[in-house]
Amino acid sequence: MISVDHPSGRVLLGHTEVRVPSGSGAMFAAPSLIWHYVTAHSYRPPAEFIKAVEQYDQGWTSDASHWIPHDAVRTTFN
């Protein structure tokens, strides 16, 4: 299992999903292992995904969204 440090403790990767809203009204989704793919295997996500990550607004995580199931656990990684 692969895990990363987070302010709330160790987070296991591989069984969750990362969602990143873009300014165009779209939502990007990637497996949480994207961190591992980028850091260990030099994977480069599409430019649009990278731009959305760079412009990420942490306030989004507390807003209601039709992109996120009502029972989803929201964790921020900043």
How would you characterize the overall build of this protein?
21% of the residues lie in helices and 26% in strands. With 78 residues, the chain is α+β, with helices and mostly antiparallel strands. It has one domain (2-56). It has a two-stranded antiparallel ribbon with strand order 1-2. Strands 3-4 form a two-stranded antiparallel ribbon. The two termini are 22 Å apart. The mean pLDDT is 82.
Major beta-sheet overview: 2 strands, antiparallel
How many domains would you count in the coordinates?
Answer: 1
Order of helices and strands: EEEEHH
Give the helix tally. Answer: 2
What share of residues are in beta strands? 25-35%
Stretches where pLDDT is under 50 for at least 5 consecutive residues are: none
- Gyration radius (Cα, Å) is 13 Å
Q: Count the beta strands.
A: 4
Mean pLDDT equals 82
Termini separation = 22 Å
Global geometry? globular
- Biggest β-sheet: strands ordered side by side in the sheet: 1-2
Assembly category: single chain
Portion in helices = 10-25%
Structural class: alpha+beta
Provide a concise account of the structure shown.
This protein has 78 residues and is an alpha+beta fold. Helices cover 21% and strands 26% of the residues.
Summarize the helices and strands and which ones pair or pack.
Elements: E1 2-6, E2 9-13, E3 17-21, E4 27-31, H1 34-41, H2 47-54
Antiparallel strand pairs: 1-2, 3-4
